[in-house]
TrEMBL record:
Gene Ontology molecular function, alphabetical: transmembrane transporter activity
Parts of the chain that traverse the membrane: 25-43, 63-83, 95-114, 120-139, 160-180, 192-211, 231-251, 300-319, 325-345, 357-380, 392-411
Location in or out of the cell: Membrane
UniProt membrane topology term: Multi-pass membrane protein
Pfam family, one: MFS_1
Stored Gene3D superfamilies: MFS general substrate transporter like domains
Protein name in UniProt: Major Facilitator Superfamily protein
Matches recorded under SUPFAM superfamilies: MFS general substrate transporter
Annotated region described as Disordered, given as residue ranges: 417-438
UniProt entry keywords in alphabetical sequence: Membrane, Transmembrane, Transmembrane helix, Transport
Native species: Tautonia plasticadhaerens
GO cellular component: membrane
UniProt xrefs under InterPro entries: AmpG_permease/AT-1, MFS, MFS_trans_sf
């Protein structure tokens, strides 16, 4: 059963045909956990690594922005590729997932071999390839999630995926901080972390090569370019605006918090612990969103998420030097708000995506939140302009998300995309027959 609301496929359990296959869910969760591995290192320690190599904060942020924004701004191109191409007869999704993971693993090994202080262009280029691999498997995995997940099971699946990502990131952020406390950070001292991150990609790579994907395709799911028109409809535009207004300030603060902690007097171990608190909060927010939706309704969860984000962001202006307790509490609440909003946006984007071009339209919606990377660079530039003063930037970032409250009404009325009238009706009640091995 593809459509429908609460019922057998809802939170209370029920028929297996209302839920995604177990093996597929494990694959999806492992891929998202791998994203969490990279997130843990890049967000919390990569800027500090480049700074230890001798790069200034402006150059470090430029390298990070260059390496991340280009692949993620253009990641939607992998959507049409996987929607149209059955690579080597292996399917439309899993061979691209495997290729992306392989690129990321090789890129991480390459980064461990380059000193950014001596070869900044080479470091940035290899980082670009690494993130290109992540963008590829992220987009194609999302397409496979859309292909395999019944409508009623999407909130649960998105919650599982986000929790997998944030739990992996939480554990590894804490572990990385402890390791770096002993080894120090910088070229010649912490390359082992990058090698370890690369090795953690091998299990999901093996699963992507073994597990088969759905072979049946409904008439309404055939590739059609006109499906992209969903992006310029009123509901699509409201969703895009919401994504920009919550994600850009959220990421701008997130990526600069390690530098803020360092400037406030915290050491690498404390930076790691604070990063773990934020990521733990993201996991909690991802779990709470589907539980709160039946009680608060869609408009209610949108308002709660935005108010929580604005409040926890602006409150960082009150954190004083060495105040670990306040920094931990606010970091956790900031993470809860971001995890809540991430699952909310992804669920809305899944519903708004056109099934005729599933990976492409979903990736384009998600690409909006990937532009949040600009927020990190803008935050860093503002920091330079203000002479290193963080409080005004925290206040500004919090206020940017407030106008998104005006979108609660339109997004509350956003209905999931229905299959075309010429769809194969039998497909709606077809069990998940793709839960097997290649």
């Amino acid at each position: 059963m593809r459509g429908g609301g609460p019922g057998p496929g809802g939170p209370g359990g029920g028929s297996l045909r209302d839920r995604v296959g177990r093996r597929h869910l494990v694959l999806f969760a492992s891929v998202y956990a791998l994203q969490g591995v990279v997130f843990a290192y890049v967000v919390n320690f990569n800027l500090l690594y480049m700074k230890a190599a001798g790069l200034d904060e402006g150059t470090s942020n430029d390298v990070q922005t260059f390496a991340i924004i280009l692949p993620f701004a253009l990641k939607f191109l992998f959507g049409p590729l996987s929607d149209r191409v059955d690579l080597l007869g292996m399917g439309h999704r899993r061979p691209f997932i495997a290729l992306g993971i392989a690129l990321q693993c090789l890129g991480l090994v390459g980064l461990a071999m380059i000193d950014p202080g001596a070869h900044v262009l080479a470091f940035a280029s290899v980082a670009l390839v690494t993130v290109l691999g992540l963008a590829m498997y992220d987009t194609c995995c999302d397409g496979m999630v859309l292909d395999e997940t019944p409508e009623a099971d999407r909130p649960r699946v998105q919650s599982v995926l986000m929790v997998s990502r944030f739990l992996a990131a939480t554990v590894l952020t804490f572990a990385f901080g402890r390791i770096l406390e002993r080894t120090g950070i910088g070229p010649g001292r912490s390359e082992g972390l990058l090698i370890g991150c690369a090795l953690l990609g091998l299990p999901p790579l093996a699963m992507a090569l073994i597990l088969r994907e759905r072979r049946t395709v409904r008439t309404g799911d055939r590739f059609e370019w006109r499906a992209l028109s969903v992006l310029v409809r009123p509901g699509g535009l409201a969703l895009i605006a919401f994504g920009l207004l919550y994600a850009m300030p959220g990421w701008g603060v997130e990526t600069n918090l390690p530098l803020f902690y360092h400037a406030t007097g915290f050491d690498e171990s404390e930076v790691g612990a604070l990063g773990s608190a934020r990521l733990c909060g993201r996991a909690v927010g991802a779990v709470l969103l589907p539980l709160a939706t039946p009680m608060l309704g869609r408009r209610g969860v949108i308002v709660c998420g935005l108010v929580g984000l604005a409040g926890s962001t602006t409150a960082h202006a009150l954190v004083g030097a060495g105040d670990l307790a306040s920094a931990t509490a606010l970091g956790f609440l900031f993470g809860v708000a971001n995890g809540w909003n991430d699952v909310l946006f992804a669920t809305l984007a899944m519903g708004a995506s056109d099934p005729r071009l599933a990976a492409s339209t979903f990736a384009l919606f998600m690409a909006v939140t990937n532009l949040n990377i600009l927020g990190g660079s803008l935050f860093a530039r503002g920091l330079v302009a203000l002479g290193g003063s963080y409080p005004p930037l925290f206040l500004a970032a919090g206020l940017i998300s407030v106008p998104a409250l005006l979108l609660a009404g339109p997004l509350g009325r956003l209905a999931p995309r229905e299959l075309d009238s010429n769809s194969d009706p039998s497909a709606k009640d077809r069990p998940d027959d793709g839960d097997g091995m290649a």
